[in-house]
Write a structure and sequence with these properties.
By secondary structure, this protein is α+β, with helices and mostly antiparallel strands. Helices cover 27% and strands 22% of the residues. It contains 15 helices and 29 strands. The strands form nine sheets. Strands 6-7-8-9-14-12-11 form a seven-stranded antiparallel sheet, with helices on one face.
């Protein structure tokens, strides 16, 4: 299967290289009340336009654009047909009518096919056509003001500023100049190519440009490279559900987009080898970010050759600042799951101390309260800025200024502290994972310590955090000791992650299935609609220092919109519960279908795309950063939809879905497996076969 062609659509206009890529920009905005129907990216334009990323955001944009003149008259073109693929894009343009020759439509057109080559050189091939009945002379001008460039990374997560000074070279196949004339025969066409290359040294940039111009197979080579990634890393999937098939390969494309080797272009980068970015572009996102690290590993463990994931873990193990400083999440658990899929005891020994430190740091005396449970100060460390549970018990109820921003601006004296469910559950899950690692490595004392800590923490969770009033788990205010039962958030379902609690608490999912509470046609909201702080937009609508007429326009408010990060974790928790309680599987499939639906842009099945968050009533997106890799899908699909369970010593196959499908070359513990579900004589059969690699 040619996955590159399978992912084609006419909406995207970005040009993707391994470490150099462009972004035209997504039209959706966090402040838009609506989006233009049928639009997503800006319209296609010839050349290398939009913002350019060389490892990170470069500050460069619109690097080269071809212009066409007939005599002194500049021709104005509009895109009439466009095909985008991960490897290349192909666009047809036609000029405005010339009333002195033919007033109905333009007679001059061109087709531009472009890509970043496998060596990250921008290459474009232009076929200029004339429908006129006589020879036409067209002057082509390739415009760019750049000769040299400077790239500086000022993201505060890095201790050292990354910078790159280099040379930008442009060449074409027609002339040494960037201004030349082409003679186009009557009702015929001519073709020319042009390239842009980038390097620190001018001689190398020149050599890359010369080499690129001599080759005519760049598009075929780039497509082969994209398909080779899928062939080498992705288990093949067949089914008759077109939505699931499209989303499956798109979410693998998301991982493909996220893998980078920044030292290739930013030689003094502190990341060594390959790593996984949270987003291909966006202010502050075009780098590894701590919050989704665990989710990257959960997705990547299903790769046939997860070398990039292990490389990323190596960087995490070195305690790089941006991985460790800001966020509370479940990386040790994800590393344990990675080990179960691809066991390597030397690897486990290497990362164990870092995992143990990460797991236990939240249980240090200065970070705990009663029952020695972790306490989080301010909502931002969990990545869930402005979650309402923090504000139910403020002195003026629902005063959101008692959070990071409010304290920074002097509106409040101290940040609110909470026994928060996501932090507690992540922390306990990490200790569970470290206990399993300790057992595997023969560290009996550590294992005993970890297991005792888990028992104590889960007992406290059951004793103090279950709300009889709401019938689910809730967070607890540190200052007052009261339950936050009016601020029920997505993390009310986190105690079921990794089956930390049993079936006797599964009634806690009832709230999840109430459409007027926390569920949506498009999956799971971040907070209960009945909460006074709930608002579907990406803002805070009151009551402190803002109102419905003057909302607080902070861009990361998680008080209502669908957030794929949270939705995927809730689906993971519900899926884990449904593995032991099959009555929950129907509900899981319903929520998962909504999660799939919202990721089809405007409902267009040709264009799957995940962003940061969505409006729950109609699935409209708020984010301007597309392909935002801070959620899971592959892991949910494989574990629950397809029902492939993997522990350190067992493989199970119990699909939630009742559909025929085949997954081939699924790599587990060095072996390749084929999983098939089919219907025979009215009965569903599941077959697991070991394959030869």
């Amino acid at each position: 299967m040619n996955i590159n062609r399978f992912l084609t659509n006419s909406k995207r206009t970005c040009v993707i290289g391994k470490n150099i890529y462009s972004a035209e920009g997504y039209l959706g905005s966090r402040t838009d009340y609506n989006q233009p129907w049928g639009q997503a990216w800006k319209e296609p334009s010839p050349g290398l336009t939009g913002a350019l990323y060389i490892g990170h955001h470069s500050g460069l944009s619109d690097l080269i654009m071809p212009h066409f003149y007939e005599g002194e008259q500049k021709l104005h073109f509009g895109a009439v047909r466009h095909q985008w693929t991960p490897a290349w894009s192909k666009t047809y343009y036609r000029c405005e009518p010339d009333p002195t020759y033919y007033k109905k439509t333009g007679c001059i057109s061109f087709c531009e096919t472009k890509c970043f080559t496998v060596k990250d050189v921008f290459y474009a091939r232009v076929t200029l056509s004339s429908d006129k009945r006589e020879e036409t002379k067209i002057r082509v001008s390739l415009t760019s003001s750049l000769q040299d460039f400077h790239v500086s990374d000022t993201i505060t997560r890095f201790e050292n500023t990354m910078s790159l000074d280099g040379t930008f070279v442009q060449k074409n196949s027609v002339s040494e100049t960037t201004d030349f004339v082409l003679s186009v025969p009557a009702q015929s066409s001519v073709t020319f190519s042009y390239v842009l290359s980038f390097d620190k040294e001018k001689e190398k940039a020149e050599a890359l440009a010369e080499e690129a111009l001599k080759r005519e197979t760049h598009f075929e080579e780039k497509e082969a490279a994209v398909n080779e990634f899928f062939e080498r890393n992705v288990p093949s999937f067949r089914c008759e559900n077109p939505d699931m098939l499209k989303m499956y390969y798109y979410r693998w494309f998301l991982l493909f987009r996220g893998i980078h080797k920044p030292e290739d272009v930013l030689g003094n980068h502190e990341v060594q080898g390959e790593c996984i970015y949270e987003s291909p572009y966006g202010a502050g996102y075009d780098c590894p970010v701590g919050l989704p690290v665990a989710l990257h590993y959960e997705e990547g463990k299903w790769m046939k050759e997860p070398k990039a994931v292990f490389s990323d873990v190596e960087n995490w193990n070195r305690k790089l600042d941006y991985y460790w400083k800001y966020y509370i999440e479940s990386t040790p658990m994800a590393i344990w799951n990675l080990y179960c899929h691809h066991p390597n005891e030397e690897f486990l020994k290497k990362v164990y101390d870092s995992c143990k430190e990460f797991a236990l740091k939240e249980f240090m005396p200065e970070k705990t309260g009663y029952e020695f449970l972790p306490v989080v100060e301010g909502s931002w460390n969990t990545g869930a800025e402005y979650q309402p549970a923090f504000y139910q018990h403020t002195e003026e109820p629902w005063d959101w200024t008692e959070d990071v921003e409010g304290v920074r601006k002097g509106w409040s004296k101290e940040q609110r502290k909470l026994y928060r469910l996501d932090q507690i559950c992540y922390s306990v899950g990490n200790v569970i994972a470290c206990g399993k690692m300790a057992e595997k490595l023969g560290k009996k004392e550590d294992q005993k310590k970890m297991e005792a800590l888990v028992v104590r923490s889960l007992e406290a969770l059951k004793q103090h955090f279950w709300s009889e009033k709401r019938g689910c788990f809730v967070s607890i205010d540190m200052k007052t000791g009261k339950q936050c039962d009016e601020g029920v958030c997505y993390d009310s379902f986190y105690p079921f992650l990794w089956n930390m609690l049993g079936k006797e608490y599964h009634k806690g999912f009832d709230l999840l299935f109430e459409k007027d509470a926390i569920a949506s046609e498009f999956s799971v909201l971040t907070v209960d609609k009945n909460c006074p702080m709930y608002w579907f937009d990406n803002c805070i609508a009151g009551p402190t220092k803002c109102s419905m007429l003057e909302p607080h326009p902070y861009v990361c408010a998680w008080n209502g919109p669908i957030w794929p990060y949270a939705a995927s974790n809730v689906l993971d928790a519900l899926g884990a519960a449904a593995t032991i309680d099959e009555s929950l599987r129907k509900n899981w499939l319903e929520l998962f279908d909504g999660y799939v639906e919202v990721q089809f842009l405007h409902g267009d099945r040709s264009t799957p795309m995940v962003l940061e968050h969505y409006r729950p009533t109609d699935g409209v997106t708020f984010s301007g950063t597309c392909d935002y890799f801070h959620s899971t899908w592959i892991d949910l699909f494989m574990k629950y939809w397809a029902g492939i369970g993997v522990t350190d010593d067992t493989i199970t196959f119990s699909p939630f879905v009742q559909e025929e499908f085949v997954l081939e070359d699924v790599r587990i513990a060095g072996k390749s497996y084929r999983f098939e579900q089919r219907k025979e004589q009215g009965q569903w059969k599941q077959l697991v076969t070991e394959q030869k690699k």
